[in-house]
Design a protein that fits this description.
Layout: H1 4-8, H2 15-22, H3 26-33, H4 41-53, H5 60-66, E1 72-77, H6 85-98, E2 102-107, H7 112-124, E3 129-133, E4 151-154, E5 164-168, H8 170-183, E6 189-192, H9 199-214, H10 230-243, E7 249-252, H11 255-267, E8 277-281, H12 285-288, E9 296-299, H13 302-319, E10 325-329, E11 332-334
Length: 343
């Protein structure tokens, strides 16, 4: 009969094997491998060399359990199919995976009852932390401060400043868009946005208006609000030019609105960017790079937001807590052909 070693392959090296090879006790080997300071440097080198020689891989599960951790984190979202949610989840999962953390993903589909069910399920699995990812940047109801694990709110901040929340700096994004247009020599700048009930829409308008005021300029007309669609972008641009034909730049609240704006400008014989520059938000590459000309846009850095959420969980596990409050992360300008400088 074949031995188990022949059937299953070589037996993985154990901590006992490393200790024996290095000529030390098992506790000393464990301390050396975990970087404890109470081990002589010569002993530590001997243990590390033995571990490398034996291809020893420490049992992460056992290590986590010994530390009172399970090595798992829950990702709780309300919109798994959402265009903004997915890159956040990808960034968080990448960072967690790099830290050898297992991820449980739960989609509440915008249902509060389903969310509570998933929350109970995650806690029953003894996750080490939870990242709650919202579908938009409007504040959402807090899960409360009595949960036994650290919780990070990503994109949609908690409505309680006692929680730790990460969200894009949409006011800064609006300022960034206006400052870019001003830098290209535009002085008659209008704003077309989406649903006025969205926090992001209002924040971007505030930021853009502040940048114009700092430059001694006034926005052309009032901001036009409606839906986040190309159809609205087309209609709003037609209305805007009928009222203010002198406009030389348009800040659009989303890339979809911007695509619609460019369509109407082309239909009306206005050249982009020579006559009128157009900038959008979200940096939705499928839209932005297939626009003609390609669309300049503000990127919310959503994958980075997800990574920062994961890092906050790591920090909480190391220190035992989080700095409560709302933390706004910077956005970035992606310049393409729709805003070529006149200077």
């Amino acid at each position: 009969m074949a031995s188990l070693e022949q059937l299953d392959g070589p037996r993985p090296a154990t901590l006992s094997d490393v200790a024996s090879s290095a000529g030390v006790s098992i506790p000393t080997a464990s301390k050396a491998l975990n970087g404890r300071p109470d081990v002589a440097e010569r002993t530590r080198r001997r243990v590390l060399e033995a571990a490398e020689r034996l291809s020893f891989a420490p049992n992460e599960v056992a290590r986590n359990l010994a530390a009172g951790k399970t090595g798992t984190v829950g990702l709780l979202t309300s919109d798994l199919e959402g265009r903004f949610v997915l890159p956040i989840l990808m960034g968080a999962e990448d960072a967690l995976g790099a830290g050898q953390i297992n991820v449980f993903l739960c989609d509440a589909r915008g249902d509060a009852i389903r969310e509570q069910h998933h929350l109970r399920a995650l806690l029953s699995r003894r996750v080490d932390g939870i990242i709650v990812v919202g579908r938009q940047t409007d504040p959402r109801e807090s899960l409360g401060q009595k949960l036994p694990v650290p919780v990070v709110y990503a994109y949609a901040p908690s409505d309680s400043l006692r929680d730790y929340s990460l969200t894009p700096d949409n006011e800064g994004a609006g300022r960034l868009a206006a400052e870019h247009l001003i830098a290209t020599g535009r002085t008659r700048i209008a704003h077309i946005s989406g649903d006025s009930t969205y926090q992001a829409a209002q924040d971007r308008v505030r930021g853009a208006c502040a940048a114009l005021l700092d430059a001694g300029l006034q926005p052309v007309g009032e901001t036009l609000f409606s839906s986040w669609t190309e159809h609205w972008g087309r209609d709003a641009t037609s209305l805007l030019l009928s009222r203010h034909p002198e406009v030389d730049a348009i800040i659009c609240g989303s890339d979809q609105i911007a695509r619609g704006a460019i369509d109407t400008l082309r239909d009306l014989g206005r050249r982009v960017p020579e006559d009128i520059a157009v900038i959008g938000f979200d940096n939705w590459e499928v839209l932005a790079t297939n626009s003609r000309p390609e669309l300049t846009s503000i990127d919310a850095n959503l994958q980075n937001l997800g990574r920062e959420a994961a890092r906050a969980i790591f920090s909480a596990l190391d220190t035992g807590g989080l700095d409560a409050g709302l933390h706004r992360l910077p956005t970035r300008l992606v310049i393409r052909g729709s805003t070529i400088s006149r200077r």
